[in-house]
Protein: Protein ARV
Amino acid sequence: VLPRAMAALGAYRCIECNGEATELYRDYQRGVLRISICKSCQKPVDKYIEYDPVIILINAVLCKAQAYRHILFNTKINIHGKLCVFCLLCEAYIRWLQLQDSTQNTDPDDLIRYAKEWDFYRMFGIASLEQTSFFIGIFITLWWMTPEMLKRKSDFILLLKALLLSTYGKLLLIPAVIWEHDYTPLCLVFIKVFVLISNSQAIRVTLNLNRILPWFAIFFGLILENGVVCLFQKMGWDV
Structure:
């Protein structure tokens, strides 16, 4: 599906070489369109503008850099804030369920009461703080290793948007609970790994880095996140 009203003077990126482009396609009227060719690599600037959104989503799930560049640079997606909140709600719900299971209370009359308990909101707050510390660790590492990449405020905003969008894998937490089986803990581990891989690809595409540095930043982010978890545990909180 072609994006609506793409401005010819806007700044876009080639999904193949990450080079800048002034337009994605040229409209010759009467339904005649011509996809722009990148001056650097001589390939179409963005082949995904004529792809179905489902195909784009599949390519994003496969962590293809071209799909990430299309989504981050050549579309006007503004759902990262809502997506972040929804993902945190999913994670908080999973933790809340595990907390309720640990109480071994089987009385069905208590389900409505549990839904109103403070524990769910506490889990949401803890998940938010952990994710914030994870992102802070990534930003500190990248700013320390490649300060030239994060000189402007817009660079930080773009990277934050990329990280928030790349956490979409947490939405898989809900099906993992709905289709509960003996391997649910293993599924949660796989979901966590998938989210980290998506985060790494988002960092790599946004800052045009090699594969090693994003993983180094993620490793430091995990250290800071686990430090927050240990702090909560010392305070006697179930996380």
Notes: Strands lie at 12-13, 20-21, 25-27, 33-35. The CA atoms of residues 153 and 159 lie 10 Å apart. The radius of gyration is 21 Å. Residues 78-235 form one domain.
